Amino acid sequence: MHVSSFSDRLSQQMRAWATRLSLGRTGLSENAPLAWLIAPSPANLGFALRTTFAALLALSLALWMELDSPQWAAMTTWIVAQNSRGQSISKAKWRLIGTCIGAISGIAFLAAFPQEPWLLFPLLALGAGACCAEATFLRNFRSYALVLVAFTCTIIVLSAANQPDNVFMIAVSRTTYITLGIVCESTLAGLFAPRLNTVAHEEIRSRLQDALSGACLSMTGLLLGEKDGLFRSRALMGSIPSLADQVEFSEIELGPHAHVGDHARAVLASISTFLARGLSMHIHMEAAAPLPETFKKSLSDFAQILKTIPDHLNNADPVDAARQIRADLYHARTNCLQTATDTLILFEQARTHPNSSEELMRDLLESRILATALAKLILELDEALEHFIATQDPSPKDHFRFAQHIEKDPVLALNNGLRAAAAICIGGLIWEVTAWPDGSTLAMFVAVTSTRFSSFENPVLASSGFLRGAVWAAVVSWVLVFLVLPDQASNETLLASLFFPMLVGGLALRAPNSIGTAAAYNNFMPFMIGPANHSRMNEIIWFNTTPAVVLGIALGVWAFRLVLPFDAAAERWRLRRKLVRDLRRLAAQQSTFTPAEWMARSCGRIAQIIHHTGVKPDALTEAYLAGAMGIMTVGLLVLRIQHVLEHHALSAEQTQLLQSVMHSIATLHGHTTQPAETAANALAQLRPAALREPNLSLQMDLTRAVGSLEVMKRELADNVTFLDTTRRFHLPVAA
What we know:
Layout: H1 9-24, H2 35-38, H3 42-64, H4 71-80, H5 85-112, H6 117-135, H7 140-159, H8 167-191, H9 196-223, H10 227-254, H11 260-288, H12 293-313, H13 318-352, H14 358-392, H15 410-434, H16 439-452, H17 459-462, H18 466-484, H19 491-509, H20 515-529, H21 539-562, H22 568-587, H23 595-613, H24 619-646, H25 652-666, H26 674-692, H27 696-718, H28 720-723
Helix pairs in contact: 3-4, 3-8, 3-19, 4-8, 4-20, 5-7, 5-8, 5-10, 6-7, 6-15, 7-16, 9-10, 9-11, 9-12, 9-14, 10-11, 10-23, 11-14, 11-23, 11-27, 12-13, 12-14, 13-14, 15-16, 15-21, 16-21, 18-20, 18-21, 19-20, 22-23, 22-24, 22-25, 23-24, 24-27, 25-26, 26-27
């Protein structure tokens, strides 16, 4: 979710200037330890300064307004501060919505169960668990809003547990300082984000240029038989769901009534289909080797165009370059179609000639299939470029909408909900059993931590730095509370004392290796210091409050390791079963997928496999990616064959052959080569039929079926072990 900010031209120039300076220094690089603190980039320093001033402004206003817990205003500022303006606006909006709903829910809960902890805590846990489970079905900060409902309700209930008569004032107070923190962050961020609309356009253009350039490089490798092209295409397809999510934030910066975001998502969807078609064509070319001479010229011309696209797109006028590329693609596509037509004429002449060899006719048929497939591949890239142009040169009468296809995972949602509910129950139990005066603080931060990360697919990984950040916040707060603040008597000196610790936290928040730690540090340090108008946190209060906060966060983090702990191997196995199940259902026509929906789901699962890997992918992950892309390809081919069957033009025998292939995939179970053998058998019978068929329409359907079966039999044969979901997937010993 972390998207680059301050990306207008001025900040780009400043980053380039800083890079040149850093290159001139000896012994210092961006990856050096503490480089983020010793030599921060201008963008990172600007973010840290801006957010620090916003937090201190929110804190000073909260103190001036005599709010009972002014530290929450500063905490909120750090929580909503994000790397891009669109992210900050989105998070602030959904945080405010979640806080308001959570405040109302908290009042209702405490009113329904006053002085009844063993009714209140289980029902509170169930409500929070339900919110966290539902949050799993949503994307970006809409998911965060439901999490906010859960822990805001919990915080208000626990804060008012000993004073239920004041629950309304506590809820209003919390909503007030949350709103105050949001307003301060949004105001300062808006002042330092000029030309937001222009910056957003540039961000979208840059991301799409990178995606299109990467797709062209990957496709060049695939068409030329280079293994690197396969690896690049996998990585790019895995990143597309994340890129589509990031588009939403740029869309917010563009303002309402714009369709640039829809066109950008359409570009990414077309790139996914482009890569999938390229993978299918790569397999088909390997199966048809040696390639027909009539096809090699078209392939070489298209590969040459692909090689030049990245340089053309990154010139001063990408829109004009994209239009010129589309013109080149038009000529390449018409040449492919002309080649297919010429091959068809030669094929018809050879078919009627008594001395024509079957090998010649097969070469002509393969050349025609490959030329037609290449024309479709070019058309997919052309469509991506068309939408790219629409993002940079929008039409005033544009009403285009792109439908997103988001998969819902009930098992993951149930696990997330149970984890959050169990953690809240544990926190409430500890408070009740120990009767610790600060037990409500412990239970509160158990709820904050467990709900905050419950909607993540891998909460163990997501929360890995959170406890460490809380410990750092405790250390820094100890220094401030015990050594610095006792000698100060005004709010001004309090703010001055907090400036440098907050600035360091803001810089750490922009360092890729310390984001999780810095987030917890920035969020919880104001709470551990406890600024107030008429008092300062003394030693006794610190020793009661801070350990409760740290222990609560530790229990929340450990709940993810103890309650239904995330297991990457088990999750991969479950993902593989879902992949195979969806393929079977697709072949049995028990589920209706369009090619776009199938591609969206496939890309999402490829991204999941990559996310489960962590930092260093291994051979098993590569095998999983190969299997997932194989199933994606087979699914697209199933849809193509079903489209042929819908014409009802083939003979009963030919229809039966294709239906038997669909049936073998639909009934796939265990380690079996039957689907591959069935596809090979159908291919062996349908190819001669395509060679003999005089009717052009029927021949077209047979050609589509033959082209699909050639790739399908290869993929089904190569992924026999991956398709066997009766046992865990292991690499062959030889590998």
